[in-house]
Amino acid sequence: METIIGGTRRASVGYALDDLALVPSRRTRDVELVDVSWRFDAYTFDLPVIGSPIDAVTSPQTAGMLGQLGALGVLNLEGLWTRYADPTEVLAEIAGLTPGPEATLRLQQLYAEPVKAELIGQRIDELKAAAGFAAGSLTPQKVERWHHAALEAGLDLLMIHGVAVTAQHVGLSDRTPLDLRSFTARYDIPVIAGNVSSAKTALHLMRTGAVGVVVGGGADSASTTPAALGIDVPLATAIAEVASARSRYLDESGRTVHVIAAGGLTTGGDLAKAIACGADAVMLGRALASAEEAPGRGACWGVSAAHHELPRGRYFKVDPLGPLSVILEGPAHRDDGTVNLVGGLRRAMAVTGYESLARFREAELVVRAGR
What we know:
Structural class: alpha/beta
């Protein structure tokens, strides 16, 4: 749907998750009869949850904890864990910073330490030992430089993660852009790519061989991309657009590509509405940064917070909410939906009468009046 914003200039109308609500159906079911498991490529996970590849959330240790809970943790292979042999003191210093410009400057200084190939291999070994599965992320600009070290160490899944990832990139003549189609054809490893926010971009990525796409419109708790770049697509609309591209691609290829929602998801209701809009799973950042085991120790910052030229991530503090297991599966002792996130999802599915995540994508949605 479009609207005229002035003269002949048109703009699409978009909806955030807060603009929507789920509608109960004529049938309900016991919550014990709800299945939230998620099959991805050749792997099955008990929970449709991915720990975001940011240093405040995912370490080899927390990736192991997520794996034990039935979720997936993705380590940032360009983060502090591959820049420092022991980032413990660095993480402690970051946790003690005061939000503001000085924190951004200090993050830039700490992330100026170069990534080391030997540490990429070491961290993947640690992921294997902790979780039995090694998932890591690289930015599109650094995939060609670092993927050999990651693959040689036995990486199981690669997430190519950036503010906006596309199948095609126009670069300077002295730089070799990432050819995602060629990359996925060369290596027998599942690749997730994102962020994307439109059906057209998502469809192009799916055609490269990516097995999953991350949908992120730009605005979340740790992102200042809307302010820095003016890019911000409301998440509910973005998920629905990309989900429609998934259906189109399935019709033309017979291959299923998974849609992963990311960006500002902090409550059980957010999880439920994201999946009802069309997502297969969700990627959580701030919500998991509030865990007592989180490496950020009460602080949170985005992947782009330490960019050397144009930081696009906010450093901020989060309220402690308890152990990681409690945040995901309870029991909850708060009434705001920020604890027992998966329990909230399960109950939403039970109240609306759906037994699986795939069926839950058929749930009725309503746009709140006045939003």
